[in-house]
Amino acid sequence: MYVYILTNPTKTVLYIGITNDLTRRLYEHSSGRGDAGKFTGRYQADLLVYFELCQDATQAIAREKQLKGWTRSKKNALITAFNPEWQLIDLETWSG
């Protein structure tokens, strides 16, 4: 299971989610770009800037809740430590 953070092109919005298939989930987010009925579509938040692997769904859900409870500055620090330039992460080429 993965916990991941998406942002929009101007890096003003953060979306935190979990999935068991990160590649599939990123495709789903990008397919819904502009869909006003969904948070990621409304705010064009489909750029992966952070992810972490969790042992199981219980751990992933707990981590997601923890991250969602953090301040924006704490989330920014986490992303910056993992991805200093906040570059779009391509899972096929990311060397982290």
TrEMBL record:
Do you know which CDD domains this protein is assigned to?
GIY-YIG_unchar_3
Q: Which UniProt keywords apply?
A: Endonuclease, Hydrolase, Nuclease
Pfam families listed in its UniProt record: GIY-YIG (PF01541)
Domain GIY-YIG, residue spans: 1-77
User: What are the GO MF terms of this UniProt record?
Assistant: endonuclease activity
Tell me yes or no: is Hydrolase among this UniProt entry's keywords. yes
Does the record carry Hydrolase as a key word? yes
Gene3D superfamilies (alphabetical): GIY-YIG endonuclease
Q: Which InterPro entries match?
A: GIY-YIG_endonuc, GIY-YIG_endonuc_sf, UPF0213_domain
The organism's lineage?
Answer: Bacteria, Pseudomonadati, Bacteroidota, Cytophagia, Cytophagales
Q: Could you say which protein family the record assigns here?
A: Belongs to the UPF0213 family.
Listed name of the protein: Putative endonuclease
